[in-house]
Each structure stands twice: as structure tokens, then as C-alpha cells.
Amino acid sequence: MKFAACLLLAAAPLLLAQREGNFTIRFEPKAILQTGVQVPFEISVTDSRRNPVAQAEVKLYIETADGRERKSFVAPAITTGVYLAKPIFPESGNWKVDVEVRRNDRFSMRSLEFNVRE
Hints:
By secondary structure, this protein is mainly beta. The chain has one helix at residues 2-16; strands at residues 19-20, 24-29, 41-46, 57-64, 70-74, 77-79, 82-85, 93-103, 106-116.
């Protein structure tokens, strides 16, 4: 019995692991990138057959180029397969923007860099 319990505990991380979603993630700011205001980013998510991905959990992360600051923003759906995040960049400079998409046991991520001015 103890062996079965140990085996189950050892396999748990494998059972809970996320699989690659093969989602195509496209995103872009819909306003001028600047500090101190919400900048809407429209995020489009499609599957490997180019169908919109509905009911996904989408988050956008902003991180300074040197990695000293990182913030997350939830992106709710605005239409089927399209999500909207509104990050606020606290300072100007180069920022890495990551978008992660989770749906069921599937996960994909995409990163782009942007220069934010004051």
C-alpha cells in the first residue's frame, strides 16, 4: 500500500503537467505606448486549425528589460478568440511583454519587446 501511495505521489507532477497548446498568439497595442495610462493590447488566439480559441485563461505580463519589475494583467474575452489586457507601464524604456494562454490542460506563450516612451 505504501508503495502505491509513493508511486502516485511521484507521478502526480506528470499528471498535472500542462501540454503545449500549439496556439497561435498575436497581440499588439491599440494605442500609443506611454507611461502611467492603461494601454489596451488586443490578443488574438487561434488553434492549430486556425479556429478562434474560446474560454481560455489569458494573461499579459510586462517586465523591464533588466528583469527587476514584472506585473501581470488578466485579459478577459471581448469576442470569440479575442482578449483584451490593459497594462500600465510605470516607466519608459524597453519592456518585454509576454502573453500566456491556458485552456484545459493546454498552454502556449509568446513574447515580444516594446519601447515605451513617457
